[in-house]
Amino acid sequence: MNFLLPTLVIIFALNCWSLKFSISEYPWIKACRVWERDCSKPNPKHIQLTYIKFLYGGCTHIIGNLVICGLEKLENGSDPDLSFLEKIEDVSGYVYIGQNSVKTISLPSLKVIRGEPGYRIMNTSAALVISRNSLEILDLRSLTAIQRNDIVALNNQFLCNFGFTIDWEQIFEDNRKQMFIPDRKEKTVSHAGCDIALRKYTDDRTKHSCHGSCPVVNGRGYCWGPKPEMCQKMLKCANNPDNYCLGGRATTQPCLEECLGGCETRPGNCRACKHAMNDGKCVSQCPPPLIVSREESRTVANPEFKYNFHDICVKNCPATTKTELPQFLFHDDP
Question: What residue stretches are annotated with the Receptor L-domain domain (predicted)?
Answer without folding.
Answer: 58-171
